[in-house]
Design brief:
Layout lengths: L15 H9 L18 E4 L9 H11 L3 H13 L7 H5 L9 H8 L11 H10 L3 E6 L4 H8 L6 E4 H4 L6 H11 L7 E5 L2 H10 L3 E5 L2 H6 L10 E3 L5 H9 L1
Length: 252
C-alpha cells in the first residue's frame, strides 16, 4: 500500500459535556500538568515500538533464534543502548558466525504478527480519548510495511497509520519527519506532537524539524537514554494514561 492510499478519517470535536465526562473518568492531578509554551498541537503522532507495542516477544524470539537466554539478550541490548549503539550490533556480539537477517522470515513466523497481547494496556484508552477530544491521531515509526496491515487488524483508534518503509525514510533522518508532515498535511511542524521512547531517534530529530515533543520513558531506550542538557522537551511521561488530560489542559 502506498502512502497516498492510506485512509484519513475525519474527526469531530465532541460537545463540551462529552469532553468533561471523558475527563472525569481520568484520575489524574491537573495541578501536575506541565505548562509548555505556545499553542497546543492538533496532531499527535505516536511511535510504534515501545510506545504502542511492548517488544518483549520480539526480543525473546530473537534470543531463542540466536541460542541465548532472554536475560543475556536483554543485557547485551542494554549495554549497546547505554553506549549509544544501534540494536543491530547485538546480533554479531551474540552470534558472530550467523547472518541474523537470514532468520527474518522465521522470526516473523514465530511472532505471528503483532497481536493484542503486544499492546501496552494504556494504548487503546489513550488513542480513543484523544480522538474524542478532537485531536488527530497518527501512528508512525520505523517498521517494515507489513506492520501496517497487522496494526490495522488490531483496529486501533487512529486517523493515519504509516511505517518508515512506506514513507521511504527511517528515523532519525529528516526525510522521515518531512514525509510524515506532508502525509498529515500539517500547516506547521509545531502543529504536531511526536511521542517517542528514544531520545536519539524520536525526540531530538522531531524537535530539530520544529515539532513539539513528548518523551515516553518506557522500554529499554526510554530507561537508558538521557536527554542532552540543552534539549527542551514539552512533555515527559512514564505512561500514556495521562496524555489526554495533559493535552486538554494545554489546549485549554
Amino acid at each position: 500500500m502506498t502512502t497516498s492510499e492510506l485512509p484519513v478519517e475525519p474527526t469531530a470535536t465532541p460537545p463540551p459535556d462529552a469532553v468533561d465526562e471523558h475527563l472525569r473518568e481520568l484520575d489524574f492531578d491537573p495541578e501536575a500538568v506541565p505548562d509548555p509554551d505556545g499553542q497546543a498541537p492538533r496532531t499527535i503522532v505516536f511511535d510504534i515500538g515501545e510506545v504502542l507495542v511492548d517488544e518483549t516477544r520480539v526480543w525473546s524470539i530473537w534470543a531463542d533464534l540466536l541460542g541465548v537466554s532472554s536475560l543475556t539478550f536483554a543485557s547485551v541490548l542494554g549495554a549497546a543502548i547505554a553506549q549509544g549503539e544501534d540494536h543491530r550490533v547485538v546480533f554479531p556480539h551474540l552470534a558472530p558466525n550467523v547472518d541474523w537477517e537470514h532468520f527474518l522470515d522465521e522470526h516473523e513466523r514465530r511472532l505471528g504478527g503483532l497481536q493484542e497481547q503486544d499492546l501496552y494496556p494504556d494504548v487503546r484508552p489513550c488513542l480513543a480519548e484523544l480522538r474524542s477530544l478532537g485531536f488527530e491521531v497518527a501512528l508512525a515509526g520505523n517498521q517494515p510495511a507489513l506492520r501496517s496491515g497487522q496494526l490495522r487488524a488490531l483496529d486501533l483508534p487512529n486517523d493515519v497509520l504509516v511505517t518508515s518503509e512506506e514513507l521511504g525514510a527511517e528515523k532519525p533522518a529528516v526525510g522521515f519527519f518531512e514525509a510524515l508532515m506532508r502525509l498529515i498535511a500539517a500547516p506547521e511542524p509545531a502543529d504536531v506532537l511526536y511521542v517517542g521512547d528514544r531520545i536519539d531517534n524520536d525526540v531530538v530529530p522531531a524537535a530539530a524539524v520544529g515539532m513539539r515533543t513528548c518523551w515516553l520513558r518506557r522500554g529499554p531506550w526510554g530507561h537508558l537514554q538521557d536527554p542532552p542538557d540543552d534539549l527542551e522537551i514539552d512533555l515527559v511521561l512514564e505512561g500514556l494514561g495521562e496524555l489526554p488530560l495533559l493535552l486538554s489542559e494545554w489546549r485549554g
